[in-house]
Amino acid sequence: MPDRATILCIEDEPEMIDLMRFILEREGYRFVGAHGGEEGLRRIRENKPDLVLLDLMMPDLGGWEVYRRLQADRALEDIPVIVVTAKADKIDKVLGLHIAQVADYIVKPFGAQQLLESIDRVLGEGGPEHT
Q: Of 7, 43, 58, 83, which one is least surrounded by beta carbons within 10 A?
């Protein structure tokens, strides 16, 4: 299987990083995990991923702040972001998709198929949109 896109997951729960790593590497994606927002921003700059999976509720630097900093950085602003969060309120989803304009919004708990379908929609099934 040829290498697929690089996906970076920013999450404060190690078990969730491991779960996403398992799901995505099995599908041929290159996976990079980051524990928390500060490490996530550092790893985004180092790896220039094709897609970011971003948790919102993290103790060191919240997901919306990470997203704001990505959007403010010309070198990183085009990287699509899928929010993956336990924040299931409809207002949070509306805020994410329509106000902040993230690429997608997935509520935990989620199924592997739901995650993969979201990634395929965002990246297109042909692979990464930018290199």
A: 43
Residues forming beta bridges with residue 32, ordered by sequence position? 8
DSSP letter, residue 61: S
Task: Give the C-alpha separation, 16 to 71, whole Å.
Answer: 25
Distance CA(51)–CA(103), nearest Å, equals 10
Q: What is the pLDDT of residues 52-92, one digit of tens each?
A: 999 999 999 999 999 999 999 999 999 999 999 887 677 66
Q: Roughly what angle, to the nearest 10 degrees, separates helices 112-123 and 14-26?
A: 70
Q: What is the pTM of this model?
A: 0.88
The pair phi, psi for residue 98, each rounded to 5°, is -105, -30
The most distant pair of C-alpha atoms in the chain lies apart, rounded to whole Å, by: 40
Q: Tell me 30's DSSP state.
A: E
